[in-house]
Amino acid sequence: MRSSGNEHIQRCPHSFAGTKKRLCYLLFLVGWFAVAGCQSSGSERVYRIGFSQCTGGDEWRKTLLHDMKRELAFHPNYTLLYEDAANNTARQIRQVEALANQNIDLLIISPNESAPFTKVVEAIFRKGIPVILLDRKVNSELYNAYIGGDNVEIGRMAAEFVGKYLNGKGNVSEIWGLRSSSPAQERHKGFREELKKYPGIQVTSEIDGKWERDTARNVLNTSPDKFKNTNLIFAHNDVMAIGAYEVAKRNGLTDKLEFIGIDALPGPSAGMQAVADGTLKASFLYPTGGEEAIETAARILEGKAFKREQILTSIQVDAKNIRGLKAQSDKLLSQQADIEKQSQIIEQLTQTYSFQQNTLYVTLFSLLIAIALGVWAYYLLRARKVAYQTLEQQNEAIRQQKNQLEDVSQQARLATEDKLRFYAYISHEFNTPLSLILTPTEDLLSKKSVSPYELRASLSLVQKNAYRLLRLVDQMLDLRKSDAGKQQLRAAEQDVVAFTRDIVKDFGRKAEKQRIDLQFLTDLTVQPLWFDAEKLDKVLFNLLSNAFKYTPKGGLIHVRLDQLDGQIRIQVKDNGQGMTPDEQAHAFDLFFSGTRPFNLSKGLGLALSKEFMELHRGSISVQSTPERGTLFTVLLPLSNKHLNPSEQIIPDVNERSNTYQRSVELNNQPEIVSTLRSPEKSAATLLIVEDNDDLRTFLSDRLGSEFDIVAECNGALGWERALETIPDLVISDVMLPVETGLEMDGLQLTQRLKTDLRTSHIPVILLTAKGQSEHQIEGARAGADAYLTKPFNTTFLLETIRTTLANRRKWQQRLTSDFSTQTGNRQDKKFLNELTSLIEQNLSDSNFSVQKLSREMGLSRVQLYRKVQALLSMNIMDYLTEIRLKRAKYLLRETNRTMADIAAETGFNSAAYFTTFFKQHSGRTPSEYRKSPVGT
Ligand code: FRU
C-alpha cells in the first residue's frame, strides 16, 4: 500500500487515544481532578521518530513497517512519522528534509540509493538529529547506527549454493537490485567473489531488476531465448526470482532452469512458500531489522548504550530445511496473529478499562462535585438557617420593641384619656358650685325686692359653694405641689385623739340630718403624735366626706383610733355601697377611671391622702366589699425619729385651722324650702333629675313657683318617677352617679325616655357642665330636646322650659287635627298609628273599652290616658268618638249602606243612638250629612 503523505502513528498507553484525549479535554474542562487522573498514566516524555522508506509497496517493506509498529507498542510515548517515497529518490530526499523540519527526535532511513542521500543524511546528523540507517547505506560515516543483514555474506552464501547445486559447472544469470543501492552492490560483490571458487560456472548475463518483480519480468520477457542455456538464475531478492520463474515457465524453460533469491519472507506468496513449492531452489533469510531499529532508537533517545553496526544474521533456506523453517515460521506467524489478536483484545479491554477509568474519574469527579455542592448547599442552608434565626431574633426583638412601644403609647394614650377625663370632671366639679354661686346671685340681682330670708338663704348657698370651690382649688394646688415634689411636711407634736375627735364632731350635724350613726371610738384619752395638722385634717375630712357620700340614710360611720406596734391607727368604716376589687386596687390612683366615670371627690382626695400619708412615712389602705361597706386604715409612726429636722416645726397656736371652713361647708345648709309655690303656677309637671342636693333643691325651689316639681337624685329613680307621673318635661343632669352599674346617666335616661312608648312624647332638657360639642351631639342623639350648659342662667332655663312646653302644645294640636298623617317623633307617631289601627279594627265592637285598649297597647289605663292627653290634648274617650265619627262620615259619603249598617259598623247598638250621637257631635243628622255637598 502506498502513501504519498505523512502517516502519523501515535501510541498512547491505550490506543483508544482519540476518545481518551477527548475525554481528557472533557475532564480538563470539567475539572482538575479528571485531568490529574488522566495525566497520571502519561507522564513520560513523548518522542517523535521520523521514518523514511525508499518504498512501502512490497511485502518485505510492509513486514518491516509491521515489525516496527509491533515494537513501538512497547514504547507508548513514541510517535512515528512515516514517509513512503515509492522508489523515487528525489521524492524521498524531499520527504526526509521535511521530516527533519518537523521537530523529530530521531530519523530512521532506508535510502533508495546510496550516493544521492549521503549529503542529506550528513546534514541531518549535523543538525543533531540522530540517524539510523536501516537495510541500505549511504557513502558516509556520519550516522549513529546501521542495522541490516550482511549482504556480502548473503551473496557468498548464494554463490556457494550455486556452486554446489550445479556441481561446479553451468551457466548462471544474475538479476540485480537497484545498482545504486548498497544491498545490490554488496550482494553482487559477495556472489562474484565466492563464485570464483567454481571456475566451471559462468555468469552468462546480468539483468537490471531494480528490486521490482515486474521490472525483472519485463526484462526477461524481451528475450527469453537468451536463457536457453542458462542453468540457474540468481536474483538479488525473491520477488524478482519469482517473476523470472513465471516468465521462464511460460516459455517452457523451467525444466532445465533453476531459480534462487534472497529474503525468505514467510507468508503465502513470499520466498519461503516459493522454496516450499519448489519454485525457488533456495532463498536466504534477510531480516527486516524493524524491531531492532526501534530498540536502537529507544536506546539512543533514552541515552543508553547501543551498537553502531548491528548486522543481522542470515541463513540459507532450501529443500533440506524448508519444512522445519516453514513450520516454525507458520507457527510464528500464527503466534504473532494470536498475539495480535490478544493485543487487540487487550487493547479493547484497555479501551474499556480506560473508558471505565475515565467514567470512574467523571463519576468520582461528579461525586466530589455533588459532595461539594451538598456541603455547599448544607452550608448555605445552615447559613440561611442561622440568618433566619438571627432575623427571627431581630424580628422578635423588633416585635417586643413594637409591643413595648405600643404598650407605652397605649399607656400614654390611656394616661392622656384619663387626664382629659380628669380635666372634664374637674370642670364639672367646678361648674356645680359655680352654678350654685352664680344662679342665686343672678336671681337676687334680677329681683326688685328680696325678703331677708330669701337673701340669707341665697348668700348661704353662695358662701357654702365658694368654700367648696376653695377646697377644690386647694386640692388642686396640693396635687400640683405633690407632682412637682414640693410638698413639704410640717409636723408638730400634738394630741391626735383630740384632733381626730374634733374633725368627727364637725360631721355631727350632717350625720344627724342623714340619720347616720357617726361614732368616734378609742381607748386612748391623750396621744401625742408628730403630724402635719393641715394634711392629716385633709385626709380625715376626705375619708369622712366619702363615707357620707356613699353611706345611705340610717347607715353607720365609725372612726376608731388605736395605738398598735409603735404606730397610731385611724380607721374610718362605713356600711355604704362599697367598692369593687378593681376600684379598691386603683382607689388611690389619681387618673384611674375604671369602668365608672371618674369621681373627683374620691380620686383627687384619696390620691392626695396617699401622698400626705407617705410624707408622714405612714400609709393608707382600703378594704371594701360591694354593698357591705368600706374600711379605710391610716397608719402613722410614733415618735419623730423618722422625721428630718426641716420637717419638724413648733406648732403655731394661732394658725387658722380648717375647722371654720369645714363647718360652713358641712353645716351651714340653709333650708331651701322646695314647697314654695307660686299661686298661679301652671299645670305642667317637671321632673328634675340632679345628683347635687343643693342644685336639685335650688332648681326645685326656683321652678316650683311656676310648675309642679318632682325631683330625683339619680337616673334610675328618675326613670321610675317618669313612669309613675308621666311628667310634661324632664330636666336632667348628664353626669349622674352610676355607682352600682344598674343606674343610668342623663344620656341613658333620655334615651330610655325617648324609646319607651309611654314616655316618648316627654321633652327632655339636659343640664351639664360639659360644654363640648361631642357631648351635645351625644345628647341630641339620645333624643334630648334642649341642652343647657352649667352654670346656666335661670331665666334662660325658664324660657327654654316654656318654649319647649309651648312647642309640645302646638305639636299636640297638630296631632289632634290630623293624627294619622303627622310627621314628628317617630315613637309618638308609631304609638298613634298603633292606637288608631287598634281602635279601627275594633270599631264595630260596641263593648270595646279603654281598659281593653290599654291592655292591647301594653300600658296602664292611667298611662294611656296621660299619654293620649299629652299627645293629642284630648281624653282617650273623645279620641274614640272622633274616630267613630270619621268612619261614619266616610261610610255615609262613600257608600249607600243603611243607617243600621253604618251604626253597627261604627260600634253603635242602634241606628237611633247613632243618629243622636252623630247630631250631637257634628250638628247634622247622618241623612243630612249624606245629602250635603262634599267639603261642608
Ligand atoms: C525490498 C528489497 C528486498 C531486499 C532489500 C534490499 O525492497 O528489495 O527484497 O532484500 O530491499 O534493500
What does this structure look like?
By secondary structure, this protein is an alpha/beta fold. The protein folds into 5 domains: 2-38 and 324-446, no CATH class; 148-288 and 313-320, Rossmann fold (3-Layer(aba) Sandwich); 466-667, Histidine kinase-like ATPase, C-terminal domain (Heat Shock Protein 90); 675-811, Response regulator (Rossmann fold); 826-931, Arc Repressor Mutant, subunit A. It has 31 helices and 25 strands. Strands 1-3-2-4-5-6-12 form a 7-stranded mixed sheet, sandwiched between helices. Strands 8-7-9-10-11-13 form a 6-stranded mixed sheet, with helices on both faces. The longest helix has 125 residues, at 322-446. It is elongated, with a radius of gyration of 73 Å. Mean pLDDT is 83; it is low at 1-30, 32-42, 593-601, 669-682 and 819-823. Bound molecules: beta-D-fructofuranose. Residues 55, 58, 60-61, 135-136, 177, 181, 183, 211, 237, 262-263, 286 line the site of beta-D-fructofuranose.
Largest sheet: 7 strands, mixed
* Residues in helix, %: 40-55%
Give the C-alpha Rg: 73 Å
**How many domains in all?**
5
**N-to-C span:** 149 Å
In what range is the share of β-strand residues?
5-15%
Q: Find the structural class using helix and strand composition.
A: alpha/beta
State the fourth-level CATH superfamily of the largest domain. Histidine kinase-like ATPase, C-terminal domain
Strand order of the largest sheet: 1-3-2-4-5-6-12
Mean pLDDT: 83
Bound molecules: beta-D-fructofuranose
Low-confidence stretches: 1-30, 32-42, 593-601, 669-682, 819-823
Number of strands: 25
Number of helices: 31
CATH architecture of the largest domain: 2-Layer Sandwich
